[in-house]
Every structure is written in C-alpha cells, then in structure tokens.
Amino acid sequence: MVNAVRWCLPAGRSLVKSPRVRLFDTLKRDYVSLEPVDGKTFRFYCCGPTVYGPAHIGNFRTFVMQDVFRRVLEVGGQKTKHVRNITDVDDKTIRDSVAAGRSLEEFTAQWRDKFHADCELLNCLAPHIEPSAVKHIYEQVEMIKELIEKGHAYASDDGSVYFMISSFPEYGKLSHLDSRELDLGKTQNSRADSDEYDKDDAADFVLWKGRRDEDGDNFWESPWGQGRPGWHLECSAMIRKYLGETFDLHSGGVDLVFPHHENEIAQSKCSCGGEFARNWFHVTHLRVEGKKMSKSLGNLYTLEDLAKKGYSAMEVRYVLLNGHYRKPINFSLDSLHAGREALGKLAKAAEGKSARGYKEILKGGDYGVFAGALQKLNDDLNTAGAIGELFGNLKAAESEADWFGLYSVLASLGLILPEAEKKIAPDEIKKLAEERWQARENRDWAASDRLRDQLLEKGWVVKDGREGYELVSA
Ligand code: AMP
Ligand code: ZN
C-alpha cells in the first residue's frame, strides 16, 4: 500500500501531504485556506519598492513577511510564481531625480540596485518576475483606453485622465469604506491627482497625468497628449500581463489598502473583468516610539545605518519576524540585541549538526520535535509563535528528524545562523587530545577510550577524521 502511494508522488516530494496554509484575508475579513486557482502554481503579486532612496527596515518588514509567505508555501511543497514590481516613475521618483539633476533612469537604477543588495543581505528570495513601471507605459496606456471605452474613465481639460469611481459600485469594499462614509454620487466633481491621499479625500483618481513643467524630461506620448501614468495604474497593467485576470493573492503593507489597492481593483475589474486577486494579505507597520516608520516622519533606519552600529541584516530579519504580521512591532536597538542572543543560541544548539540548504528542505520529511513550529507558520504565518516553538523544543532535539525539522523552520523563516563561536581549547586539553590520538595510532583502544572520556568530562568532544581530529566544546 505504501509503495503504491510512493509511486504516485513526483520525485523528491514528501510522503506527507503538505498542509494547506491558512491566512487572514483582508477583503473577506476571515481566515481562508490557500489553494492555487489553477490547481498547480500559487501565483501572487507584491507591490514593490518606490526606488527614490534606500528602503528602510519598515519597508523590509513587509518584504520579509512576503518572503516568509513564499517560503512557507514552498517548504509545504507548493510551487509558486512571485511577481513584484519596481516603481520607477511616480511623483516622488520624478521630484527627486529632477532635484538631483539626474535622468530618471539613472537615478532609479541606483536605488533599485541598492534595494536588491539589501534583499540579498536579508536573504529574501528574488521574485520570479520583477517588472519595471517605466518599461510598461504601453500596457498602461492600453488599459486607460479600455477604461474610457467602457465608460469608467474620462479625459479632463488639462490633458489628464481620471477614473470615475461612481462607475464602480464595489469601490471601497477592500478598505471597508461603506456607503455611509463614501457617497459615490458626490465624488464625481472631486478629483485626486496626487499619488497618495486619505480615505476622507476619496475621489476620482488620476490614471494619466498631463505633462507639467516640474516633470522635466519625464513624459511620454499618449492619445491625450504628453504626460505620464498615475501611480496606481502600473500594478494593474503588469498584473494583467504577468498573472492574468484572476490570480491567487495580492499583498503589501497596510498603508496600501487605501487608496492604492482599492484603485487597482477598480482599474482591473473595470478593464479586464475577472476576479482579480482571490485573496489579500497585508502587513502591519513597523513603528518607532509608537509611530509608523516612514521617510516623511524621518524616524527611519536603513540596513546601512544599523550595520554602522554593528548589527547584521540577519539580526534585523529576526526582529522583523519576532511579532505577528497583523500586530505592530515597536522597533528598538534593544530588540536587535535580543535578536543577536537568540540567533547565537540557535547557532550553538545546531553546531556540528549538518546544515541543510533550502533546496534539500523542499524535499520535505519528518520534522521531529519542530513539527509544531511549522504548524504555527502554516496557521496565518505565526512567525513569533514558530520562534517560540523553536526555543521551547531546542533542549529536546536529538534525532536526525529533529535537526531536519530545525533547519526546515529556519529555511521557512529565511534565517541563516551565524557561525557558532569556536572556543579555543586550552593547552591542557590539546595535550590530552594529542595523547589520545597517539594511543589510537598505536591501536591502544582502551587508553584511547579512557582519554576520550576524560576530555568529555572536561567539556570537550573529539571528532576523528581520516587525517586527524577536531576538538569541539561540548
Ligand atoms: P514604498 O517603497 O513606499 O512603495 O513601500 C514599499 C512597501 O513597504 C509597501 O508595501 C509599504 O506598504 C511598506 N511599508 C512602508 N512603511 C512601512 C512600515 N513602517 N512598516 C511596514 N511596511 C511598510
Ligand atoms: Zn501596487
């Protein structure tokens, strides 16, 4: 019977059917069990960075959680397709590139490269596709044309085009702006043409911005004259191209729920039809002294700021994971200290146990005493709970399965352990070890065993190899 099951499995897959991942869905306001709509590949989209400066660790809370999301699916045996865009044309990129006297392309390339380098330090898997907004102007213009044709958008006198939110009765559903708060009839005469605004300012939003002096050389041709796309449009256009009209999940930080994601839904559903994102996953903010970490408040830390203070990217990653993604984390340097200690403890426990790489982990298996930690991750990405389970079971870990389980949890969290500090053996210990090696060479097994026990009593383990031995503190 077991053999029959084994023959049905694709090579290298676990015999244990991967558990479904449960997640809290922002739109449904309830837990959902995640399954790919095509039955094969879980296809998801994350709004990427706006590349006008270094990303701060608040931004990285969101990107790291999205990375854990993907890892948890993959460790559970689910194939994924991960698309994350680069916002390289919007109000801020244009403003700052013009102020710096550099071309938009050159200016944003520098910050895109910095973002990639930071992602690598944080051990974030690169998305399968990373489209740039500037390279998809054609697709955005095409989408606007469709929206106008279908009666959802209109051109204004200044060469801009606006989405008419009163034409889409579902507007406000994701952000739970109900009809009392949002009178769609009244929005028709009000327009929002900046990329970001509050719920109180809900209004027809800009799809195409007519060319203005302050935009410098940054404009493109369109049926409505020269200009550039509004920020919300790029994601809708690129999602359609790379994921189609219906895909599995969309994600970002909570500040994107309104207006960005609300506007994406309106643009996509009105132009293409389809369900758009079947599920929504939003990450709560990283805070500093109770306030959202943000560039505008000037309370941010970058990885580089923290490296100058002696903290590693892995310590930052640990801190970003040591809280549930739907609760705020208040960032402090003390929490980085605690992260350092925690990683050190894990490294000490795992010392000498053969480390396993991500690819090996994907083959699945028995997770031993750490099965509970993986369950926590499968249940609404409870990273803090998984970390608690790691420490709760560390002392009980002894079997091969347990160590495999430990590395599987670490791979799901994307944590890389520091090299455990190697204790240098004192001369007395080195002398005993040397005597034992000689006894072994002389095939005096009794003396060799006696000396091994003496060393163990003093807290040292001897590991024999073909060419010699290694002393490791017990
Ligand atoms: P941006 O580069 O401004 O487009 O933001 C990139 C991502 O970071 C978006 O998903 C934002 O929602 C997210 N984000 C911005 N600030 C924070 C923060 N303090 N904590 C968590 N996520 C954030
Ligand atoms: Zn987006």
Describe the protein's architecture and organization.
This protein is of the alpha/beta class. Among the domains are: 265 residues, Rossmann fold, CATH 3.40.50; 47 residues, no CATH class. 41% of the residues lie in helices and 15% in strands. Strands 5, 6, 7, 8 and 9 form a 5-stranded mixed β-sheet that branches. A hairpin with a 2-residue loop joins strand 12 and strand 13. Helix 12 runs antiparallel to helix 13 and helix 12 runs parallel beside helix 14. The longest helix is centred in the first third of the chain and has 19 residues. It is elongated, with a radius of gyration of 27 Å. The two termini are 44 Å apart. The N terminus is likely disordered. The structure holds adenosine monophosphate (AMP) and zinc ion (ZN). The site of adenosine monophosphate (AMP) has 18 residues, from helix 2 and strand 10.
Which key features would you list for this structure?
alpha/beta; Rossmann fold; five-stranded mixed beta sheet; 16 helices; 41% helix; binds adenosine monophosphate
Mean pLDDT: 91
Q: What is the name of the CATH superfamily of one domain?
A: HUPs
CATH class of one domain: Alpha Beta
Question: Count of DSSP helices?
Answer: 16
Please outline the helices and strands.
Layout (H helix, E strand, L loop, with lengths): L1 H7 L13 E4 L4 E4 L7 E6 L10 H19 L3 E6 L6 H10 L3 H18 L15 H13 L3 E3 L5 E3 L27 E2 L11 E7 L16 E3 L3 H11 L2 E8 L3 H16 L3 E8 L2 E3 L2 E2 L10 H6 L4 H9 L7 E2 L2 H18 L7 H4 L9 H8 L4 H11 L6 H14 L13 H15 L3 H13 L2 E5 L4 E5 L1
Parallel strand pairs: 3-4, 3-10, 7-8, 10-11, 12-14
Antiparallel strand pairs: 1-2, 5-6, 6-8, 8-9, 12-13, 15-16
Helix pairs in contact: 2-9, 2-14, 5-6, 5-7, 6-7, 9-10, 12-13, 12-14, 15-16
The chain binds adenosine monophosphate (AMP) and zinc ion.
The site of adenosine monophosphate has 18 residues, from α2 and β10.
